[in-house]
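tool_call predict_complex ligand=flavin-adenine dinucleotide
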Amino acid sequence: MKILISGASVAGPVLAYWLRRYGFEPTVVERTPAARHGLGGHAVDLYSAAAEVARRMGCWDTIVAARTQLDSMTVERFGRRPVEVDLSRMYAGISRQHVEILRGELTRILYDATRDSAEYVFGDSIADLHDDGEGVDVRFDSGLRRRFDLVIGADGLHSNVRRLAFGPEEGLQRQLGGYLAVFSMPDVFGVGNHTLAHFSVGKLVGVYGVRQTGQVRAGFLFRGELTYDHRDKDQQKAVLVKEFGDYGWKVPQLLEYLPQAEDFYFDSIAQITLDSWVAGRVALVGDAGYSPGPAVGGGTSLAVVAAYVLAGELAAAGPAGLRNYEEVIRPLVDNSRRLSPKIMGTVIPSNALAVRLMPGAAATLAKLPTSLQRLIWSQNAVGKVFSSTTLPDYSNLLQPDSSQPLP
Ligand SMILES: Cc1cc2nc3c(=O)[nH]c(=O)nc-3n(C[C@H](O)[C@H](O)[C@H](O)COP(=O)(O)OP(=O)(O)OC[C@H]3O[C@@H](n4cnc5c(N)ncnc54)[C@H](O)[C@@H]3O)c2cc1C
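tool_result ok
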């Protein structure tokens, strides 16, 4: 089968890798031009099951070598002493295998693992698709027309394939009541390879070092209800200044770098609430189908595991495998959707008591023996989503010559 994948970030390349291993012919179309592909991006996490997928792909060691190495965090608050949190111990307690990596680095590694075995088309996008039950006719923005057996949207939170096959985004989103802004700037505070965070009611400001560039990323999370134009970066920058202009702490120095920030990212923290990720011969994987919310729900691990499952189910049952894929990943999607509002509630505290107690609780928890931390996490949704190592085994379906380049 010829399978078109829209999006070459995380879910797209993982899906392309496994499809090729099962003997399919994947084509990946990515809107970003080749020269900009894989650049930048925020820090994302791979937890147990996703780490195992990466290991089976042979990229785990490369991913670990590229990890952020942000192992500690200082949490500050107004009028209270700073608290040090050992992040490496905390992650070890949450997940048997965990790595934090910049999304751009992960994308580059996954692309390198698939560039010879899948067809990649950069700087283009699907303009239109028509599913006639036997296949899907696709017209691209470039004007090119091609026919595929299946089309998979791996094109993120604001998915193009979802819009074309499932309808407008507005009706398919659940706003969690928070917003998120990130941009790069020089390391003016000497943060180095460390994370600095400042907590207050309804707001979190974080600064973390990017060892590869010597710069830092400044991140702002806050609660509210806003209306803004999602295409207008200047308007979004103005919103951030309005929210944080009089915050104090180190924020005035951070905001000095906002006007010239080229990689400025701003979005609401929203989930995709579709109940089905399959429409005929078109399906969605990763954030496109079930983003649990950026930065609060482990979307990267979910994307990796789901892409692995989708390829395996297609290998097992052909197009009928699309429905099986839905059923296999549904519990993980449901758990992630339930968890992310709770994570948002923790990282953007809603009341003064949480501001007072949360940093100390996190620091204390991280100091406990790893086995005890795991026992505590296993009692709640964090354990279900991040500690799970369960992966279906499709190894009997692998094709003998399938790691060879495409003809
Ligand atoms: C600021 C921020 C912080 C985050 N922090 C974390 C974290 O700490 N931990 C974590 O696990 N996750 C985090 N996430 C979420 C994580 O980035 C996503 O869950 C993950 O990247 C999902 O992968 P994906 O491949 O499904 O989609 P994406 O990574 O969003 O990739 C979509 C791809 O599709 C491409 N594309 C878009 N439109 C088109 C089109 N029309 N045609 C072709 N291609 C297109 C895009 O260019 C992109 O390459 C964060 C997200 C944000 C925004």
